[in-house]
Amino acid sequence: MFDERIVASFDDKETPFYYYDLKLLNQTLKECRSAAEGHKFHIHFALKANFNQKVLAAVKANGFGADCVSGGEVKKAVEVGFDKKQIVFAGVGKSDAEINFALDNDIFAFNVESVQELEVIDQLATAKNKKASVAIRINPNVDAHTHHYITTGLDENKFGINSWDLPLVYDTLKSCRNLEFLGIHFHVGSQILDLNVFKSLCIKVNEMQQWFEERGMPVKVLNVGGGLGVDYQNPDENAIPDFKSYFQIFADFLNIKPHQEVHFELGRALVAQCSSLISKVLYIKNGIKKNFVIIDAGMTELMRPALYQAYHKIENVSRMVEGKGFKAEGELNLIPHTSYLSYDVVGPICESSDCFGKGVEMPETKRGDLIALRTAGAYGEVMASAYNLRPAIKHVYSEE
Ligand SMILES: Cc1ncc(COP(=O)(O)O)c(C=O)c1O
Ligand SMILES: N[C@@H](CCCC[NH3+])C(=O)O
User: Fold this and answer.
1) Is residue 225 lining ligand 1, measured as CB closer than 6 Å?
2) How far, CA to CA in Å, does 129 sit from each of 71, 113, 150, 179, 302?
3) In this predicted model, what pLDDT tens digit does every residue of 185-227 receive, in sequence order?
4) At how many degrees (to 10) do helices 71-80 and 53-61 cross?
5) Matching CATH number, 22-272, of 3.40.50.1580, 3.30.530.20, 3.20.20.10, 3.40.640.10
6) Which one is the CATH code of 4-16+273-397: 2.40.37.10, 1.10.287.130, 1.10.10.60, 2.60.40.3360?
7) How large is the average pLDDT for residues 44-59?
8) pTM value?
9) Is the distance from the beta carbon of residue 304 to the nearest atom of ligand 2 less than 6 Å?
10) Which atom of ligand 2 is nearest to the CA of 187?
């Protein structure tokens, strides 16, 4: 991904910044869309993964809808120009102001996460003399086999309505005159690489839709959420996820009826690989037990390693020649692997967890080298913070 021309173009840029490969982003979006179109599946992009303006413009241009988790995201989606009939609003804690904003904008649907929320949406819709379309988020108790902080579909998680509360949901839907029941919604977790998880999800979705339809409530939308993972270890070899196999699971195992639409809410799979956090080496500190590379990006710019011990591939792009490996300073020839050193790559923030990788093998690294933290396009800049009064994040975009 980082040929010499790209690295040279970074020379005059102030670090740290997120570098976006817009060509890769567009390729990824197109592949996803064509894989989904074959099955007539609808995809809403989960804005929580990335709400960078250029990213959203590309997502919208490629025909995706918007999956929002706050009033702020609904507002953003409206401002960017997503079709309001392609905006959904999920989240366990929607405030009255957020619900009102979404009602005023006539969005496609609320994914509702509790019985009390159903009642509140009905009251607020009644006050506006409107009907709110709702999908019921059901907690399917399916183990996503992913990091426990990003598992969302187990009984112990706060998300969704548990199946034993469905009779109460049914009664509430029947008594609330300003709600229109649209369908059911699920999301079991994120960074899921084992496609069997989605098979188990399909089985639960089939059970749940039958429950509603047996009670005379047609389920028009089956929303199966997002969660497809990406290859953090091999970002160049597997730059675009296998969308075909992913969608095929749902085509094979979901019991889709003619009156139904299947909706997805993908985030990470669409945007993770198109961006890297580029940072400059400030200092090299050789300790007794460890060598530290101290870079000018910290957990404030990319929080995932500190928060989830998440892995991001780390490369010294100043010493990389495309197709040839690494070069030593001033040399054009390859340097042997034995001259790779082991470093802990850390940021400047006053927290011990401000560490991007331990024992990272890199060619001998010097002050001023550029370091790329790969696969940072999802849950990267959106989770940035101003802790330590850090400046706002900067961006650089590929030409395309
Ligand atoms: C309800 C919901 N939908 C969609 C997503 C997007 O997930 P992912 O980025 O893993 O595709 C999430 C985040 O996990 C979510 O909580
Ligand atoms: N922020 C998480 C994903 C959360 C998904 C949202 N429910 C991550 O970086 O992996």
Assistant:
1) yes
2) 20, 23, 38, 11, 44
3) 999 999 999 999 999 999 999 999 999 999 999 999 999 999 9
4) 60
5) 3.20.20.10
6) 2.40.37.10
7) 98
8) 0.94
9) yes
10) 7
